[in-house]
Amino acid sequence: MSNLIFCDSFIDGEFYKTNEHFSVNDPATQQSIIEVSDIDEQGVNSAITAAKGAFVKLKNTNATERSETLMRWYELVIKHKQTLAELMTKEQGKPLKESLGEIDYGAGFIKWFAEEAKRSYGDVIPPTDNNHRLTSFKQPVGVVAGITPWNFPVAMVTRKVAPAYAAGCSFILKPSEHTPLCAIALAYLADQAGFVKGAFNVLVSQDAKTVGKMLTNSHIVRKFTFTGSTGVGSQLLKQCADTVKRTSMELGGNAPFIIFDNADLDDAIDGLMAAKFRNSGQACVAANRIFIQRSILDEVLSKITPKVASLKVANGFEEDVDIGPLIYPKAKEKVQQLVQDALDKGADLIGDNSSLGGSFQNPLIVTNVTTEMDIYHEEVFGPVLTVIPFDEEAEVLSLANDVPYGLAAYFYSQNLKQVYRISEGLEFGMIGVNEGVISNPVAPFGGVKQSGLGREGGHQGLNEYLEEKYVCIKI
């Protein structure tokens, strides 16, 4: 693992050292992995200048060149898959088997956009008279800045940087201060793959607010992309308004998971286990509110309770571990507060909620959840199933939609007419029908309402980094 651990920001193809440092800690042990240098104001300005210069060069490259460079990056990421996965488990805590899966998933975005780089098509528009020819074509938007979270420290980076480079844009990345090591390693490998110098810069800092403000205030930065909470995303949108930047925001979620009485229950429970407990429940698309039709409630609980109880909670490097630590102790405190609030308001608990110490949290099932409880309205971001019974289709559709968020939703049904009704009726950007894992590089990822703007992945992900130019020629 040591050959890809770096402790400094990466600017213009070089490591950038400062005199201020902070510690990146292992969530499983709370021990320091390494001290990293904290970026200073000069470093942020250097990254903006480097990205500006890189864009001048990058926009004049052709799609085939960018595609080939991205493919080399993809190959290097796959070559170093084990090393990157171990680094991820070390700084983020997820089980190693999940880290290995994320490397494949994150690399998939690089490969997909290496292919999409060659598919940025324009239009020939039928003219309205014989004296003109009308066309449109796409060009890169310019310098891009982005902030990524700690929960998927590789995939969140590649699904932003890969389409930006494919489009011909340079990138300035501020990764989470909790998981900067994967981001620096990715930038180093991108440089080894032949990225234009300054096209992928990584700024390591504890002060996301100050760095974010410098990037959003910059007139050189023409697009800003963010994955994180709705509250922070809303503030960043306000900051981007003064310079009228293009934005894409992947924000909070509160995903419903609905099991109808006609569902294949064994399949539904397998899907629920995947949708809820991946990454210890620390995912914006994690199943959050579990709606079970009342007629099958007891049967579902009898089937899922032993599965939840059998999940192994341990350090992500141990054998057969299912749930690693939460990212830091305060994350566990929030989970505990949400569970206690629900219990105080009449919910029931299935599972052992005794402390495991540190950031480890036992998986739990909270039943008889109502809309008066905080756990119903907030993302749990932990390994806790919240169960809400329902009677009728119209009732559960109303409950599922009655939140300000609209990122992902899931439901299980064997009734074809119902599948269409619920798919069309759910106010969410992504729907899993009889499937608990829906993310895929070839498909658009994103939400509606307060869950964000824009899409990542699919051909739509490339368009987020392109401007359309119309040309009218008089002949």
TrEMBL record:
Residues of the active site are 250
Instruction: Name the InterPro entries on file.
Output: Ald_DH/histidinol_DH, Ald_DH_C, Ald_DH_CS_CYS, Ald_DH_CS_GLU, Ald_DH_N, Aldehyde_DH_dom, Aldehyde_DH_Superfamily
Q: Which UniProt keywords apply?
A: Oxidoreductase
Q: What Gene3D superfamilies does its record include? A: Aldehyde Dehydrogenase, Chain A, domain 1 (3.40.605.10), Aldehyde Dehydrogenase, Chain A, domain 2 (3.40.309.10)
Question: What are the boundaries of the signal sequence?
Answer: none
Q: Which SUPFAM superfamilies match?
A: ALDH-like
Where is the Aldehyde dehydrogenase domain positioned along the sequence?
A: 19-471
Q: Which domain of life is it from?
A: Bacteria
Q: What is its EC number?
A: 1.2.1.-
The UniProt transmembrane annotation reads none
What is a single Pfam family found in this protein's UniProt entry?
Aldedh
Q: What class of enzyme is it?
A: oxidoreductase
Molecular function terms in GO for this entry? oxidoreductase activity
By sequence similarity, the record places it as follows: Belongs to the aldehyde dehydrogenase family.
Can you say what this protein is called? NAD-dependent succinate-semialdehyde dehydrogenase
Native organism: Pseudoalteromonas marina
